[in-house]
Amino acid sequence: MKTKDIAKQYGFDLKLLEHWLRLPHTQYKQKNGMGGMSVDDSVDMRALAADFTQWANQVEATRAQEQQAAALAAQEKQQAAALAAQEKQRALAGMLITSGFNFDGYTITKYSGYISGDDAVSMNRPSQGFWGSVDGNVGQDLLRGLVHIRRNALAELKESAYALGCNAVIGVDFDYLSLDPETATSNGGTLYLPFLFAVTANGNAVVIEKNDRTALGSG
């Protein structure tokens, strides 16, 4: 009897049925002919159907367990990542920064070296003179831009310190860079590009520990 007829009669998935029949431990021998796969007509088809159904149910149960385990593992991984992100945010929020080289009430226990953080902002050129513009607020726009990139540079500085396992940065200062880019046009003229302002926050990443006030006052 052809496997496609068996699958149609019992509502089986044909590909899965033929895969099962090809397995070494399957007792029902199959053969391939011009009309496709078939099994001997002497085979008890009800027994074959029952055995295949039992096997298919086991496969489905195993697959469901594997999917459930994979979903649980993915959920645990996601939760761990969320906890790690929260812990990182707490560490960055609590990280101390100073332009000096120590913190009152703390002892530096480890120096991890020089680090830096950078950011930049571009600004369109004024339309009238250097400080003139369409809205007349070039100076204010520049100050807002500098505030923004300083904050970003400090945030990157903290990220660098965190990556080194540090909880503070000492000797912090800023370096500023301004560029007045221009390029030649196809007709031999000059095209003046937007101004570029960049800032670099520099410092030394350290590990600090709070001093034991009890110990300090016991003497």
Descriptive report:
With 219 residues, this protein is of the alpha+beta class. It folds into two domains: 3-74; 95-217, Translation Initiation Factor IF3 (2-Layer Sandwich). The protein has five helices and eight strands; from the N terminus they run ααββαββαββββα. It has helices at residues 3-10, 14-22, 45-93, 138-163, 213-217, and strands at residues 30-33, 36-39, 96-97, 106-123, 168-179, 182-184, 190-192, 195-210. A hairpin with a 2-residue loop joins strand 1 (30-33) and strand 2 (36-39). The model is unreliable at 128-134 and 214-219 (pLDDT under 50).
Write the layout of secondary structure elements.
Blueprint: H1 3-10, H2 14-22, E1 30-33, E2 36-39, H3 45-93, E3 96-97, E4 106-123, H4 138-163, E5 168-179, E6 182-184, E7 190-192, E8 195-210, H5 213-217
Parallel strand pairs: 3-5
Antiparallel strand pairs: 1-2, 4-8, 5-8, 6-7
